[in-house]
Amino acid sequence: MMLRRGFILFLPRLVGLLVVACSSMSIVYMLACTPKGDNQQLALPRVHSPTVKEGYEAILQEREEQHRNYIISLKKQIAQLKAELQGRTEQLNNMQNQYPDSLDIRLDHSKPENAQANLLAFLHSQVDKAEVHSGVKLSTEYAAMPFESFTLQKVYQLETGLTRHPEEKPVRKDKRDELIEVIELAVGSLNKPDGASKAKPRVYTASDFVEGIYRTEKNKGTLYELTFKGDAKHQFKKIVLFRPFGPVMKVKNENVNMADTLINVIVPLAKRASKFRQFMQNFREMGIQQDGRIHLTVVYFGKEQMNEVKSILENTSKSANFKNFTFIQLNEDFSRGKGLDVGARFWKGNNVVLFFCDVDIYFTAEFLNSCRLNTQPGKKVFYPVLFSQYNPSIIYGHHDSIPSLEQQLIIKKETGFWRDFGFGMTCQYRSDFLNIGGFDLDIKGWGGEDVHLYRKYLHSNLMVIRTPVRGLFHLWHEKQCLDELTPEQYKMCMQSKAMNEASHGQLGMLVFKQEIETHLHRQKLSSKKT
């Protein structure tokens, strides 16, 4: 009885507690589910308010409106995403339709073996479309893509970017990693065992790397040509690699024997005996003593200073026991194109590499190897970009004395510039020069003939190798632009003269020399007063 009576007394309290708990849970639920505005939250009506029902109805109506707006916003976003997806799909289809149907570039992920085969076919097609195996016809000289050259330590570049350094260590990590990867891959390829040979293979290392050149065709890939030391003197290993915006593919691995490859250096000349003496010193050291596979052809215009030039040539021949030279004399006004053309056609021996040179050029034995390695009859001609020296009297004007010539030949932005507007120094096989038609002999005097020849090669199917080289220098000399030149030639001559003197900063120091001296004088007076 007592328990039943207690339970009956406790029941109203339990019901009351349950009502309070349910009411509390309803309030909490409504607080949690009511959307918030940007700055405030909707307040619930007080329980004892006479308009409780109307308040809840208003809240529910407002929440319903908010949900409706949210659903509309989501539908708009979904529609935008669908439109964007449709656009991307159309772009992808257009890109895929540009490839030949036979390649079937579209990758079928349901069949991995087909996808891999199609990808490999595409990568190989990139090699075929790029200028790797042969040259392509180009409309102008501006369409040619130059190579850049590199060694283990330095990159020699035409596009100097913000640094304006013609040579530098590759500071950008992507470029540094790229070149290291290519060299390592080439070394690995050289060390891959050859099943046909039973002899113990030589182990190549990065120290055997001589130099390389590379260039990137933006829509195809990057072509690398790397040269390594061979098994004997004057022998080299050449590796050609291509990165079709994917894994690097070996294109070629060949032995290159240059032991019997002769270079005929052709120099047109008129007067300038003192410059010819300086040139012969360089020719004797680099061409005769270090290289030894060289011939010199001098085409001389007129008779003034001719005996002095012939004497310099004969003295070098006797002292160095050098007989491989030809002297041709023409009784007419100087024409560089005519001189080079006559010198090239005068040769009666086998097909030979022609190096068109000037008397104010300094070259190294390494450059002569580059001349051989970058020419191939019916395939390649070599147009090196030489480093042009600034006026030493301006560069070293603040020194006690001007350094020796060998000490001046340093590739830095303070000492010179890549002469990328010049096309006069070039290497090609004589057969290619004759087949292309040689020089335009109607051009007289200075300038123009080299550009015309360069354009002929670009319009042919020969590959033009255009790259800065570290072993070819244009020595500074005062340039005179004669009144007899045509307006176009005179303009080219004056532009060349302006660029030859000094860098922008050095010329600026000369222009503001008086202002700088005045400033220094004031500073000196001010320091004395203090």
UniProtKB/TrEMBL annotation:
Keyword line: Coiled coil, Glycoprotein, Golgi apparatus, Membrane, Metal-binding, Signal-anchor, Transferase, Transmembrane, Transmembrane helix
One MF term in the entry's GO annotations: glucuronosyl-N-acetylgalactosaminyl-proteoglycan 4-beta-N-acetylgalactosaminyltransferase activity
Transmembrane segments: none
InterPro entries with a match to the protein in the record: Chond_GalNAc (IPR008428), CS_glycosyltransferase (IPR051227), Nucleotide-diphossugar_trans (IPR029044)
Source domain of life: Eukaryota
Gene Ontology CC entries for this record: Golgi cisterna membrane
Catalytic activity: 3-O-(beta-D-GlcA-(1->3)-beta-D-Gal-(1->3)-beta-D-Gal-(1->4)-beta-D-Xyl)-L-seryl-[protein] + UDP-N-acetyl-alpha-D-galactosamine = 3-O-(beta-D-GalNAc-(1->4)-beta-D-GlcA-(1->3)-beta-D-Gal-(1->3)-beta-D-Gal-(1->4)-beta-D-Xyl)-L-seryl-[protein] + UDP + H(+)
SUPFAM superfamilies registered for this protein in UniProt: Nucleotide-diphospho-sugar transferases
Subcellular location as annotated: Golgi apparatus, Golgi stack membrane
Any one Gene Ontology BP term: chondroitin sulfate proteoglycan biosynthetic process
EC number: 2.4.1.-
Residue ranges that the Swiss-Prot or TrEMBL entry lists as coiled coil: 64-98
Topology relative to the membrane: Single-pass type II membrane protein
Pfam family, one: CHGN
Family: Belongs to the chondroitin N-acetylgalactosaminyltransferase family.
Protein name, UniProt field: Hexosyltransferase
Organism: Malurus elegans (Red-winged fairywren)
